[in-house]
């Protein structure tokens, strides 16, 4: 695993977000989190989303126009279920920015570049600026971001030092070298983001829960990660 955790300063967060429905039922919580997957065309966003949600990799994807999302349900712990929506910006990469509608209610983002193509790393600043300009928490701080240096199974054109420096300068707390092809660090990176979102809520004592009238039965079949 290649990852940096630095920048000790963390900004406190406040309660938020219509999309983050939290259902509470006899101690059980169910969250809905919208995560964005952003970056230039061809860096592997769709491949990462498919790898994570379907466990598959294919070198041939049809180009989809419009924002696409895939859902995965995580049994995070015996009391917590998370419905994760991964939004893939399919077809809009050429603009280098997204509309506010696309960013709405997002609680975290993965910025992706292709480690074999330096130009896609140079674009990260532009994508990050667009993200931070268009989505902020009520207290003005940004949503958690992870940087993914994808295609680490092929040639490397950007060094660890360059990536770490970029993260330090832009207050990105973690980055991972990933491969959608070889399934390297894909789950780890998403888990990092989920953990960030959950812990910041916990830190702020968020109590935005709805009591359910009847006990519901939560499926535990697709348990993929527990803390
Ligand atoms: N070797 C390798 N190829 C990848 C990886 N991820 C994606 N690709 C390939 O890169 C190309 C673009 O991927 P795609 O997911 O469509 O990129 P997107 O435009 O960012 O959604 C496709 O041919 C993928 O098969 C990876 O981790 N390793
Ligand atoms: Mg795509």
From TrEMBL:
Report what the protein is called: Ras-related protein Rab
Quick one: which gene encodes this? 105618301
TM region(s), chain numbering:
none
User: What NCBIfam families does UniProt report for this protein, alphabetically?
Assistant: small_GTP
Q: Which domain of life is it from?
A: Eukaryota
Which keywords are on file for this protein? GTP-binding, Lipoprotein, Membrane, Nucleotide-binding, Prenylation
Record's GO cellular component terms: late endosome; lysosome; membrane; phagocytic vesicle; trans-Golgi network
Q: Please report which protein family the annotation says this sequence is part of.
A: Belongs to the small GTPase superfamily. Rab family.
GO biological process entries: endosome to lysosome transport; phagosome-lysosome fusion
Question: InterPro entries given for it?
Answer: P-loop_NTPase (IPR027417), Rab29/Rab38/Rab32 (IPR030697), Small_GTP-bd (IPR005225), Small_GTPase (IPR001806)
User: What is its biological role?
Assistant: The small GTPases Rab are key regulators in vesicle trafficking.
Q: What is the lineage of its organism?
A: Eukaryota, Metazoa, Ecdysozoa, Arthropoda, Hexapoda
């Amino acid at each position: 695993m290649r990852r940096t955790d630095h920048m000790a300063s963390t900004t406190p967060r406040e309660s938020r977000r219509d999309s983050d429905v939290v259902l509470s039922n006899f101690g059980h919580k169910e969250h809905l989190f919208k995560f964005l997957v952003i970056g230039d065309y061809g860096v592997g966003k769709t491949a990462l989303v498919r790898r994570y949600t379907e466990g598959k990799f294919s070198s041939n994807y049809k180009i989809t126009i419009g924002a696409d999302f895939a859902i995965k349900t995580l049994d995070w712990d015996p009391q917590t279920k998370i419905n994760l929506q991964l939004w893939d910006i399919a077809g809009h990469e050429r603009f280098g920015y997204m509309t506010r509608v696309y960013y709405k209610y997002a609680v975290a983002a993965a910025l992706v570049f292709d480690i074999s193509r330096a130009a896609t790393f140079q674009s990260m600043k532009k994508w990050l600026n667009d993200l931070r300009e268009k989505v902020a928490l009520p207290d003005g701080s940004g949503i958690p971001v992870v940087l993914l240096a994808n295609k680490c199974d092929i040639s490397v054109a950007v060094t660890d030092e360059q990536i770490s420096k970029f993260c330090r300068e832009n207050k990105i707390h973690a980055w991972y070298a990933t491969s959608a092809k070889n399934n390297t660090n894909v789950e780890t990176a998403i888990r990092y983001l989920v953990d960030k979102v959950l812990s910041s809520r916990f830190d702020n004592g968020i109590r935005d829960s709805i009591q359910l009238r009847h006990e519901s039965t939560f499926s535990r079949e697709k348990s993929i990660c527990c803390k």
